[in-house]
Amino acid sequence: MDLLEYQGKQYFAKFGIPVSAGEVTDNVDDAVAIAEKVGYPVVVKAQVLTGGRGKAGGVKLANNADEVRFHATNILKLTINGHVVRKIWIERASDIAEEYYASFTLDRSKKLHLGMLSAQGGVEIESVPDEDIAKIWIDPVVGLTADAARQWVLDAKLNPKATDGAVDILLKLYDCYINGDATLAEINPLILTPDGKVHALDAKVSLDDAAAHRHPEWENFTGLEPIDERERMAKEKDLQYVGLDGTVGIIANGAGLAMSTVDIVSQVGGKAANFLDIGGGASADHMANALTVINHDENVKAVFINIFGGITRCDEVARGIIQAMERVQLRAPLIVRLDGTNAEEGRKIIEEHASDRLIMKPNMLVAAQTAVEIAKGK
Ligand code: GDP
Ligand code: MN
User: Fold this and answer.
1) Is ligand 1 within 6 A of the CB of residue 93?
2) Band of the pLDDT at 311, cuts 50, 70, 90?
3) Alpha-carbon span 91 to 39, nearest angstrom
4) Ligand nearest 103 Cα, by number?
5) What is the pTM of this model?
6) Is the CB of 41 under 6 A from ligand 1?
7) What distance in angstroms lies between residue 329's CA and the mean position of ligand 2's atoms?
8) Which of 316, 339, 319 is nearest to 327 (CA)?
9) According to CATH, where is 3.30.470.20 located in the chain?
10) Ligand 1 binding pocket includes 305 (Cβ within 6 Å)
11) Which CATH number fits domain 21-92: 3.30.230.10, 3.40.250.10, 3.40.50.720, 3.30.1490.20?
């Protein structure tokens, strides 16, 4: 997961890295109110997951409310490298004496962490000559020591006034990268102010999705994005679910089959309400969870359960469906297709309980057609 600048700065702040005070918004009036609060001059900055915002007109200084209004209006109309600007970050402007570059990432070939530091910051690091970038390879077991950090800063030939501040920030940035489970933590520019302070003016952070279970607080990074309540529920229940806007709820086992199910529903003239891969787990619990999430979606008029038994046995799935139906008060009928391992036993179980709420169909196409017809109220 890549963070927007303001989210990256919030993350930095948790690790004690100095950033400017500011707030995010999606509208011009709030931008002015924020500017009045943080005090002029301010910088108005486009929040998009792409670099080069400065060059594209997405970073502007403003000295008063009129200028904030002017720049905020313009920036909120921009598309930068294909990214539509929906949010802007307003922060107190900094005085800059020098701009540096600092980052940590993983060097896969060396199996070590790589730190890069350059006295030439504020420009894309790709355009900085290699000899002007001081690199440090860090053994994750040893970590970054204060002595190594100091030597690294000296190697980068920053202004001597910046040495202490830079060492301090780099140690904190490494902490953020390691303990914050980031795959990239970059500050460009890292600035030295005229009064000798070192400060992060930009933040580029990518988080390691595989570590999300350690960080419930990452949920906040959805920020102002609308959260799909169905997806939030599904996530809580550990289901592979993607909300769509049709009327046929879908449960299938395996991502490939789930996608084919979405496709076949649209081929026969319907529209899927979701993608849901129930995986190998066909227990009643798992099925009940899947049905609960789908049941929460008011657009769903029929639910198509499409199972191809492999390791998952169809009779187990069938029992799971029956038990789940006893636990979840379903609003829409279920249309079931079972094939593969123990399909016959599975179908028998469903047929014993068949009704206009639970319909067994012999194959995927007929099941899809039935689900779509029911969803359309035919
Ligand atoms: P990017 O272009 O997407 O990397 O956006 P940055 O946040 O790095 O900003 C681009 C440039 O704008 C920086 O390199 C600075 O030169 C300038 N800039 C950003 N914030 C400030 C600020 O607070 N004061 C001043 N004077 N310049 C700033
Ligand atoms: Mn930058």
Assistant:
1) yes
2) confident
3) 9
4) 2
5) 0.67
6) no
7) 52
8) 319
9) 98-219
10) no
11) 3.30.1490.20
